[in-house]
Specification:
Number of strands: 0
Mean pLDDT: 82
Order of helices and strands: HHHH
Low-confidence stretches: none
Largest sheet: none
Structural class: mainly alpha
Distance between the termini: 117 Å
């Protein structure tokens, strides 16, 4: 096994501390998203799975870039210590920041939705003004067709009854 200089091990340790803190930030973001979204029980499993896959890829990529993916004891110690320090020192502040930012984002998204909906309604009303005579004519024709269909059904029903009556009369055997 090859010896690694102490300075390089210190660098790797700082990288793992940073990766641990990054995992903490991602987890706080995930908690904030779950706080606002409140997913159902079956979705929580899927969200958790996606979170852990993202964290695994992040840690693996970080270790691969930093020390060619070598996993030593200081990697686990650094990740754990970085995560612990993050939660003790920064997590409450970052959680409040994420909640504020997400609330602002969702409020802006809601305002954008309302604005786009109002613009859509305006466009529909402006387009429908020249088409209004055709809409009125269409409603009128539809009423007439429905009425005539009902009267045709009634007339057809009466004619069918008469036809059955005559069929019954002529098909009876004479005794």
């Amino acid at each position: 096994m090859q010896e690694i200089p102490v300075a390089l091990q210190g660098y790797y340790f700082v990288i793992t501390l940073t990766l641990g803190a990054a995992v903490g930030v991602l987890f706080d973001f995930y908690r904030t998203c779950r706080y606002f979204r409140r997913p159902r029980r079956h979705w929580v499993f899927i969200w958790d799975l996606i979170f852990f896959l993202v964290v695994t890829v992040l840690v693996y990529a970080g270790l691969l870039l930093a020390n060619w993916g070598e996993v030593r004891v200081y990697v686990f110690v650094g990740l754990t210590l970085g995560l612990t320090l993050y939660y003790l020192l920064f997590s409450p502040t970052v959680l409040r920041l994420f909640r504020f930012l997400l609330r602002v984002f969702l409020t802006g998204l809601g305002a954008l939705h309302k604005g786009l909906r109002a613009i859509g309604l305006l466009v529909v009303s402006l387009v429908s003004i020249p088409l209004r005579p055709f809409l009125i004519l269409g409603r009128f024709i539809k009423k007439k067709l429905v009425r005539s269909r009902v009267s045709l059904q009634r007339a057809g029903g009466r004619a069918l009854k008469r036809a059955k009556k005559y069929v019954n009369i002529f098909s009876k055997k004479k005794s």
